[in-house]
Design a protein that fits this description.
The structure is a single chain. The strands form four sheets. Strands 1, 4, 5, 6, 9, 10, 11, 12 and 13 form a nine-stranded mixed sheet that branches. A hairpin with an 8-residue loop joins strand 16 and strand 17. Helix 2 packs antiparallel against helix 5, helix 5 runs antiparallel to helix 9 and helix 6 packs across helix 10. This protein is of the alpha/beta class. The protein starts with a helix and ends with a helix.
Length: 678
Amino acid sequence: MIFTSIALVDASVHLIPQTKIELFIIAATACLPLLLYFFSRKAALRDTRIFIEGIRAFPMIWVILLGVEIGVFFRDAAGISNENPKYWLHAFSSASVFSLAVGLFSIKRRWAVAGFTGIVLSLLIFCDLVYHRYFGNVIPLSALFNTGQFWDVTHSIWSLIKIEDIGFLFLALGSLSLWLCGPSLQANLKTENTGLPNRQWRLLLFLAVATLYTAWNVSLWMRTPASWEIFDPKYTLRSVGPINAHMRDVAGTLREQIQLESMSLSEIDQIKDFLSVQAARKSRMQGPYSGAAQGSNVIFLQMEAVQKWVIGARINGEEVTPFLNRLANQSFYFSEIFDQTGESSTANCEYAALNSLLPLRKGATAFRRPNNDFWTLAHVLKNRGYSTYSAHAYKRSFWNRAVIFPRYGFDKMAFIDETGAEPQIGWGLADDVFLIRQAEALEKLPRPFFALLITLSSHHPYDYIPAELRRLNIGALEDTELGNYLHSVNFVDQAAEKFFQELESKALLQDTILVLYGDHDAKLQLNDEVVHKAAASLSLDKNQLIQISQSRFRTDQIPLIIKLPGDISPLEIKTPGGQVDIAPTVLDLLGLEAPESFLGQALFPGQNGFVTNLNGYASNNEFLYDPGQKENSCLRWSDFKPVLSKRCDALRARTHTTLDISRKITLKNLARVVTEQK
């Protein structure tokens, strides 16, 4: 087995040396149960007291070995730097929790329990690694609500698996062999299994102390502000490892449920008071274009994975998004809009854009709170006589849209059964055909109308666009993830242009606000080779490319373009904002007041902006706050140079309050309550 493992490892030419060494160690570890079984058949060895006690303790030792190796292997395979000298201690102590649980079973049962535990941990952390490559986190407990969507994203999942991940398979197979060989190994010793030698009790006592250390460490974390508002998964993972991160997640999730269930009426009144103050402040902030498009139809075009940096970008001299570039120069172009979606990207964008509230930090509101009494932009417009419509060329069950969209206020919906599935690109109907068909559907809606149209062809892993539809000269980036992404975005750009032309031909643009925005960042994985190639052909510098790959807050932005009817002069608006500000901005242009539950604000030139994301990063017109930095966490917005940390105190406080209030409104179902109270 060990020679097969070595051959498989050596077959990969892509592995970094450190990972190669770890795989050799893991492969050797996986062979230990078989080696012990072999040695247990040697009479000279199996009757010795040390060997007997070692075999009895081996199921517990196995779980510790596996837990530590998993922690280290996950860290290196995920590319997470180790900045905590106690990382090994956390990996050991968290594994000790499971080892102690194994030790509490009888000696006969330990083999099966340890084997099962090892298999579960190996598969769980493997899934964490794949999940981390896309979302930057381990799988949260709340994601269990989304497991029904696993089969819908298998293509994306397979694209994220790498050859070095075979290490988890080795450990799972080693655990299986422990499970299967354990009873025979125990029988070979020919000893009684009653009672525990002193050394066994000492080992259990030691494991109990390690378990208490883990519990103490989690309890300390639970007392910090980071456990509520600012959860930086990268910091957590590089500090304590994946198993401990899961323990923190479970503890935080359980606490959240307990505390929210016990939320007092006084706390609810405090939330209402905060929103009243916010509403009074916003009512005094009318923009220069308030009411400029009064009575107009509203179309939201939500573009899958389109980031801001593609606007104006060129590849080998060609514009990546020529139509969106022209439209931005003819419209209101909001150039400082940040992604606020978190893990459940598309669903969270829909929640933020429609409800003007930050999504939940873990999981999707569409699954966690589908029965809430939401109060969205659609509800506001329905009360003004608008008809409401949404369309997405995929399954109505995906992201629970068949349930959540009616509660978001949409009276009419179209999914793949209504839009048709052919011609298909990727998951569903090609974006260009989808949008042309939607122009026809919009023409038939009662006026005025509000429509949400969601594109799909540019979905991860971005390799769906067929060769005959690829128009860009990608050059050296061809067949890379970045190259595929550029082709995908260019295709969306073409589809948006055809849609715009179709709306013009049907005279729909004469009395319509057209709102185009990206739903979330692309989560691109760019290695050094791709960055080098891109820097030579793409109109972005190397530093920008690195920040995009790392999903850094400064570059984690989406485009927002609002085309108004009539001859209103184009304008670039540089006020920092996010997806929660889209609905208030549209209502301001319509001359309508935003509901009290909306946390976002209308964006206009010269305004004091504010934006935060779910990890506590924040910005306004003066400063950018980066909680992931130990030093230089406060940057000046004008040139992004470090300033004294205390200058971000007000921004930091507003961030904590906003995240806390938004979370409680969603979890306690207060949106309609505070709106109707007013």
